[in-house]
Predict the 3D structure of the following.
Amino acid sequence: MKKALLSGFAALTLLGAAPAAMAEEEYLTSEEATEKYHKYPEHFSFPQSGIMGTFDRAQLQRGFQVYREVCSACHSLERVAFRTLTQIGYSEEEVKALAAEYEVQDGPDDDGEMYYRPAKPSDYIPSPYENEQQSRASNGGAYPPDLSLITKARPHGPDYVASLVGLGYTDEAPEDVQVSDGQYYNPYFHTVLLAMAQPLYEEQVEYADGTPATIEQMAQDVTTFLTWAAEPSMEARKRTGIGVMIFLAILIVVSYVSYKKVWEDVKK
Ligand code: HEC
């Protein structure tokens, strides 16, 4: 009697456990999910791509606006000093005013205390968090990386960043992908699940130049700005490169003509 009761109990427990166990099995492992759903970045034609490409100043300013109003809540941009923003078309006065909207830590003062003061053009853009630990604590353990070099740090960086934030959050997670708390599905991320919630929504910023702020537009604008941040001297590099090519082409012609001239008599 006791045995029968026990096995009945065991059967019940098994029955109860069965559906949960099945549900577990329906999910793909992380590797399988990546294999099945990971997407390579789309290709965008940015004005700065190609060997002759240059930045569109208006787009750079729109991108900075998106960084400032959206991404800077979580991501730092430590390598960019305010003064360099004159390169993307702001006047020195505008840069001064922009910098003054931020507070940076300075000191120690005569009493040995650190203090905060409005930023100056010579300061670097301050981080949203005091340190990495604080930023992890505010983001469920995940670290929002500094964006200064992100377009260089990932393969096909600009296409990747624009795809990740501009296209990646439109799909619902497929049913066989298990999304835990604090995780979000994005097929452009290398494991298809990341700790960044969708950052961009339609009309999230209001552009002064009247450009419609669609998710894709904001994504491409902020990507262009981050491409500039990662390599502010890109245009100068391309100009030098083209100059060198023209110089070498002329040099080849000159050397060939003089070679002909020098050997003229010998060959006859
Ligand atoms: C609410 C906080 C938050 C906001 C706002 C935010 N991010 Fe993130 N972001 C994160 C976190 C957290 C991670 C780390 C995700 C991970 O590793 O799972 C991350 C990661 C990233 C990555 C790195 C992905 C990789 O390959 O490692 C990029 C690129 C990125 N964010 C771009 C942006 C851009 C561009 C914006 C603004 C449009 C933005 N983020 C706004 C929190 C945020």
Observations:
- The chain has nine helices and four strands.
- The beta strands are 103-106, 115-118, 184-185, 193-194.
